[in-house]
Amino acid sequence: MSCRQNTTTGCEEGELWKLADFTVSTALNAYQVFPGSPPLFDRHFNGLTTENDLKFENIHPGPGFYDFTGADRLIRAAYERNIRIHGHPLVWHQQLPEWVGQSHDLREVMIDHIQTLVNRYRGQVHAWDVVNEALDERGGLRKTVWLENIGEDYLYLAYKTAQDADPGALLFYNDFNLASNPRKLDAAISICRNLRNRGIRISGIGMQMHISIAGPYRMELQEAVDKIWRAGFMVHFSELDVSVNPWVTKTTITEKDLREQQDTYYDVVRIYRSIPPQYQYGITLWGLTDADSWLPAYFNRVDAGLLFNTSGQPKPAYCGFQNALK
Ligand code: XIL
To answer: Rounded to two decimals, what is the model's pTM?
Structure first.
């Protein structure tokens, strides 16, 4: 990401959330907080995003049938400890059970889903990713089951339903490749502007930030965050991880990879801190340790994208993040 010589090597492990002046979160699942939350989580994080427990296939597996077991456990545990909870995602085209596509009234299904989740966790979930990944790489609306059955207005309908169900919750639009693809970024900003013009109190944009040591370029990322806050929206780095093997060219990870990853984390956090504070919603890592990360299994490659290694020890990446908070 940066060609600059690394000057940030080494650090003594502190407590990230205390060092940062924004919320530092990680994706977490219910199975990780039973019986107590992991010490690593308690030490470094003061926010969480629900990684899988609120996804449609898990929480709403049958028509008219909800299973709140995991979500309730995770959200209660976090709420009791004063951890800021980010609800993810309400409307998405993945991790959807088959019955959804077979329903005759998708509009009704979507509204019921949003109302049920937002009502249940009202006052506990601080903010929602209402719609996730609605755009394709050309900046058009992705042809999802929601778009095809409800039409373009599904976006407004989703946000309006969430807003009415919990007027106190912050609402976000979340997507990937927003730094590397300006067309997609402009489209995301324009979705949010249109919603705002129609009376939706949308707070901000989640840039997923599944990035790598190869990109995006520092300049691209800087330009992207500047565009978002200048348009009046908060910026959430919502699913940050930094792949060291994006093109699946490696079977082992080297020290050099880890140093480059450290530099990338450093730059990402510095860029985040350049955002005026009132537009900073926070940074969320997509998992606690490399053992929890979705990258190796999902992409079937050797990878290590997070701040802590598989034994929970801080990596150079950790120092990159921490040193950027100074
Ligand atoms: C991922 C989870 O981390 C995995 O455990 C799951 O198997 C697939 O989904 N964009 C998103 C997240 O918005 O919800 C995805 O999470 C990663 C990509």
So the answer is: 0.96
